[in-house]
Write a structure and sequence with these properties.
Keywords: Signal. The protein has 123 residues and is mainly beta. The strands form two sheets. Strands 1-8-7-3-4 form a five-stranded mixed β-sheet, with no helix packed on it. The longest helix has 16 residues. A hairpin with a 4-residue loop joins strand 5 and strand 6. Helices cover 13% and strands 33% of the residues.
């Protein structure tokens, strides 16, 4: 019994002292969304319930906006743009934009997970 209790306490302590790198943001459909990933982040990956494949957006300059799944297709429905300063702007959020966003090339700090941004719908 004491081993079980000790194991449970150690597990609880591990979760209580660990740091997560998850940011949450809410938006209404039609609202402008801004997520600052930081300088040097020129690729963003997103996973949403609207598309089974991960989607990527690159900082490519004006007129080359939109998401892609394989580099060949363009998904421009979200009107998103990633700027060279690492800021992602979605002009008018749609239900297809709600999901998780991350930097696929990010090297996390030792002992920490990669940064993850959760965008959810505000009621």
């Amino acid at each position: 019994m004491s081993r079980l209790l000790l194991s449970a306490l150690l597990l609880l302590a591990a979760f209580a002292t660990s740091e997560g790198a998850v940011a949450q943001q809410q938006a209404k459909v039609g609202e402008r969304v801004v997520i600052a990933f930081g300088a040097g982040n020129l690729v963003v990956k997103r996973t949403t319930s609207a598309n089974p494949k991960p989607q990527y957006i690159f900082a490519l300059g004006e007129g080359m906006d939109g998401w892609t799944t394989d580099g060949g297709d363009r998904i421009n429905a979200s009107k998103a743009r990633l700027f060279f300063n690492g800021t992602l702007v979605i002009e008018k959020a749609s239900k297809a934009d709600f999901g998780s966003y991350e930097i696929p090339m990010e090297e996390p700090a030792p002992g920490l997970p990669k940064s993850l941004y959760e965008l959810s719908e505000k009621n």
